Amino acid sequence: MPDIIQDNVYGMDKEAFRQAGYDFIDWLADYFEQVEGLPLKARVEPGDILYQLPEVPPTVGEPIDVLFSDFKRIIMPGITHWQHPGWFAYFPANNSPESVLAELLTAGLGAQCMIWQTSPAAAELEERVMEWLGRMLGLSSHMKGVIQDTASTATLCALLSAREKATGFASNESGVRQPLRVYASREAHSSIEKGVKIAGYGKDNLCYIDTNEAFAMIPEKLEAAIQKDIDSGMAPACVVATLGSTSSMAMDPVYSIAAICKKYSVWLHIDAAFAGTAAIVPELRHFMHGVEQADSFVFNPHKWMLTNFDCSAYFVKDPETLIQTLSINPEYLKTAADGQVKNYRDWGIQLGRRFRALKLWFVIRSYGVEGLQQMVRGHVDLARQFATWVEEEPGFELTAPPQLSLVCFRYNPGTHSEEELTQINKQLLETVNDAGSVYLTHTVLNGKYSIRLAVGQANTKLKHVKKAWELLLEARR
What we know:
Elements: H1 2-10, H2 14-34, H3 48-51, H4 64-75, H5 97-109, H6 120-137, E1 144-148, H7 151-166, H8 171-174, E2 180-185, H9 190-198, E3 206-209, H10 219-231, E4 235-242, H11 254-264, E5 267-271, E6 296-299, H12 301-304, E7 312-316, H13 319-326, H14 357-392, E8 396-398, E9 406-411, H15 418-434, E10 441-445, E11 448-454, H16 462-475
Parallel strand pairs: 2-3, 2-4, 4-5, 5-6
Antiparallel strand pairs: 1-7, 6-7, 8-9, 9-11, 10-11
C-alpha cells in the first residue's frame, strides 16, 4: 500500500507521460482533421455532464488512460466546436497546430513570468513580439505593447490609467473623490460597463453616446456630452472608441474623436478586439485612421490571428502612466536588474503571468506576415460574397453595412410587424443551427432582430459559406 500511495502522489513516470503525450497529440491531429464532421453545437441538456461526474473526488489515483477515456466519453459530447469551419457565431476564437504546440511547451516549462529575473527569455521575447505586432498593424513606434489575457482586462487597465491621470494619481491614494466620466458609443462592448464598475467610476458615470446609421459614434454628440459634464462640475476622464463592435462591426471615427479628446485632455482608448487583426492587411487598414493619437489600443490575436486563447495585445503611448498606476514594489520582488529591464507585472492587473508570447512567436514565424494577411483577405472576400447573396435574394436584407468579415442580415418576406419578423428570424436561425453543420448567432440593431454571420475560423472556405446560405434559403420556406 505505501508504494501505491507514493506512486499516486508523484503521478505518472517519464515513460507513461511520453506515451500519453503521443496518444494526446495523435488524438488532436485527428480532431483537427475530423472536426468538420462533428455536430457543431453540443447536443446536451443542462446537467447532462454534471450528472456523469462523481460528487466526491477519487480517494486513490486513476490511470491516465482512464482519464482520457472519460474525457472522450463524458466531456466531448458537451463541447461546442469553435474550430469547426462552419463556425460563424459570435466571433472566431482560432487556434493552430503551431500555437497548440507552443502552449504545450509553455505548460511543460511552468514558467512564472511576473518579472524579468523569473524568466528573462519570456520578458524579452514578449517585448520583441509586441514590437513585431505594432509594426504589422502600422502602429506608431511610440506605442509600447504588453500581452494581457483578454481585451476586458486591457480595457480595465486603460480605465484605471485614465482615472489616475485625471486625478493626478490621487485616486490610488485616497479613492475617487469627484465624479469622473467615461464615454462610449451605445454599441460598445459590455466589458466597458464592467470595467467602469470595477475601476470605481460607478455605472452612472458611464455616458453612452448616440450612433449614426452605420452604428458608429457621432463625434458632435460626444463633444456635447463632454461639455455638458464640464459645465455641471464633473470631470471627463476617458473615451472608449470601438473599431469593430461586437454586434455589427461598427467603426467609430477615431480621427475626429481623438481631436475632441485632445481638446479636453481626455484619455482615448481604442477597443479593436476582433477587427484589429485586419489592420495587418494594408488595403483594409483605413479604419485605423487616427489611432496614432490614441493613448491606448487593444486587439486580440486569440480571435483572428491563429493564436489560441488567451492572448490580448495592449499598446500604450505612455507606459509610465500605466506603470505608475499599477506598480507595487515589495522588497521580495526587487532585483538588481530592475533599472535595465521591463518587469511586465507592472503593466497589468496580474502579478503572476503566463508565458503567452511563445505561442504568438510560433504563429508569426510559422505563417509569416504574408500568410496571415492571406487568411484575413480570404475571410473578408467570403463575407463580401455572402453579403452580395443577401442583397440579391428577394426577401433578405442587410441590417447593417457589411464590415470586414461580418454580415448582419434578416429575412423580411413582406408586410410583417417587427414582432412577427423577430419570431420569423428566430425560427430561421434555430432551424439553420439545428442542422449541425453551421452555427450563427443574432443581435438586435435599431430594434431589428438580426442574424450575424462572422467569417473568421481558420479553415473556413467558400463551400462552408455556401452551405450556410443554402441552409438559410431552405429554412425560409
